[in-house]
Known about the structure:
The structure holds 2 protein chains of 2 kinds.
Chain A: E1 4-16, E2 21-33, E3 37-41, H1 48-56, E4 63-68, H2 76-79, E5 82-85, H3 97-107, H4 112-125, H5 141-153, E6 159-163, H6 171-186, E7 190-194, H7 198-204, E8 207-212, E9 215-221, E10 227-233, H8 236-246, E11 251-253, E12 256-261, H9 267-276, E13 281-286, H10 290-299, H11 301-305
Parallel strand pairs in A: 3-7, 3-8, 5-6, 6-7
Antiparallel strand pairs in A: 1-2, 1-4, 8-9, 10-12, 10-13, 11-12
Chain B: H1 10-21, H2 24-40, H3 53-67, H4 72-77, H5 79-83, H6 90-122, H7 129-155, H8 160-190, H9 196-207, H10 217-224, H11 232-254
Helix pairs in contact in B: 1-6, 2-3, 2-6, 3-6, 3-7, 6-7, 6-11, 7-8, 7-10, 7-11, 8-9
Amino acid sequence: xxxxxxxxxxxxxxxxxxxSTVTALDAASFEVRAGEAVALLGPNGAxxxxxxxxxxxLLTLDGGEVKLFGKDPELLEVRQRIGFSPDAxxxxxxxxxxxxxxxxxxxxxxxxxxxxxxxxxxxxxLGLAEAARRSCGGYSRxxxxxLGLAxxxxxxxxxxxxxxxxxxxxxxxxxxxxTLIADLKAKNVAVVLNSHLLSEVxxxxxxxxxxxxxxxxxxxxxxxxxxxxxIRVVNAAVVAERVxxxxxxxxxxxNTLRVPIASEDVMPGLLKMVIEGGGEVxxxxxxxxxxxxxxxxIVEPAKVAA
Amino acid sequence: MNGLAPIVSWPVMLAAARERIKTPLLIGLVLVxxxxxxxxxxxxxxxSEGFAAIAGFLLLIFTxxxxxxxxxxxxxxxxxxxxxxxxxxxxxxFGGRLAGAGSVLAAAMTLVWLSTTANAVxxxxxFDLARVLAxxxxxxxxxxxxxxxxxxxxxxxxxTNIAWLLFATILWWASKLAINGINAVMVAKDKSTDHFSxxxxxxxxxxxxxxxxxxxxxxxxxxHNGGRPDWSPLAYDLVWLFGAWTVGCVLLNxxxxxxxxx
Lengths: 306, 262
């Protein structure tokens, strides 16, 4: 197994005001390896963005240590290898998107011509080709988000931090983001993702860290996670006996049959079993709600109980 | 130019200059400065006419507008955090922002100087050393003010760096006026010259040249009239310029980069 590109040990961050002190991160430890996509999941105010900003050196730690590529994140050689796309970024209103990207490219050591070329390529790829020629002052939230992502990718980073990358994006933007993360992983880029879009996280990430009140409650490995088939039928009572006999591990929750599966390949067989048993299928899907269920169980158990 | 790379990031400078130069209010002000300076350019002008009197006041306004929120606006938008994650030091970023605004200042002043010089020379004024030096001497003075505004902008939000500077200036003048008034009343009362208020007035008179960048145009007037100028105002302005620059970098190094504070 490769060395971790990000090592966070005992990260602690407190925000102090005149009246109170809030512990935003409480001894959080985690690692991310090359080619791995890791999601930080938790409710608003859980400490996800703070964790990211601490890893990047944007916030001063009250305790703990961060190493990027085994080194201090403040080192200029380390910053050459990272990218960060913040949530709802804003850019100088009188500069065009291409100007902003050119600035980031030249700061990374590219010539102006190289930076311009790369900026145009990224703008094209992220659906900003036209908007990138306009001043940033008139950008929508989604366009700002895309420009932030383009800026983060200007230096072909080996470690990429994405804070709510799909916020403000339209469905095609979300799909493009999914493809992009998959491409980056294929190039051995490590991705740290902070998102509330659990279905996307489930599709692109290798691991999820559940955070609440600044603490990492659990690490969930997507590849080793139990998967389920969910089949909604009109007449559950008719097929219940047959299911009990042929798939004893399956359980009914109202009209929905839930069966643990090893892969999606078994779905046709399950459907055949239900239909041949006289069941009328309304909907069938594999896994899907697994991460959401886990999220609720781990992060918001009170809601599950309710 | 590359020798300055450790303290000035050229890409940041270029971006800062691009931002500033596209500000319609600044462009309008340069046009007004040009018109007023041209009106002052006569056959007896010594080269300082583009930066003195009303033109000098407008130059200060222009400098203030250039320096308004120069550093903090980038933090407030969150763009500073992204740029400072690139392989550059905070000092280089600060230097780049300051030099970018400074280059716009230099361009505007050069434009004013070229126009007034062409106008004055066409009316019979001499093109002497005083006229040549008027531009760099006035620029150092204005740039020193810009550096002060940039340093203030590290710790003050948005355009409040200008507000605090104006407040400090008004407070200084009001205090001076009040102390002078008190002193005049006390002297008139018992005709004595040995008052504490007089000591204070004397003290204020002594420190006044050092509390802010000094107007160095006296150098130009003296040179134009064939005298030996006192170069110290220019030296003080250079001290203010590099002093404020250093203080700005030190303050920036102490600042937490993220927007989130509570």
